[in-house]
Design goal:
160 residues, alpha+beta, 4-stranded antiparallel β-sheet, 15% strand
Amino acid sequence: MWYYLSVILALVLDQLSKAWILEHFEKFDMREIIPGFFNFFYVTNTGAAFSFLADVDASWPHWFFLSISLVAVVVITFYNRFLRHHGGGMLTSIALGFIAGGALGNVIDRLRYGAVTDFLDFYYGSYHWPAFNLADSFICVGAVLLIVLSFFNSGPREDN
């Protein structure tokens, strides 16, 4: 249950935030939110994280990233089901749900627009972190939560 609730939460918040950006911004519009630190800056990304392969003049990266994301969601869903039947905890399910929900949010963008909608722009002076979105944030929060949980679940195990 926690897995599916977190998938839905991540997916809905991601898609609502992107719908708001698409309704109120033109591509490359920027609004300063916190001077010297944070903007809304609407851009699109046909590649992966940090625009990896975005400049490739071919359609294969689109289908590659779309396929990898869908396969990852299926694998994560089955892994969550496995863990649920073998004593997996609520926080692990939430972390996996955030990763899957974030991946699905970006899949929806690739299917609808051919690119992922990014708009969160953090910076300091002339140093900018690449723009990203809530789906990316949910993926990162889920991954960090899994890493933290692994420290608590890494004790010696008794095998049968």
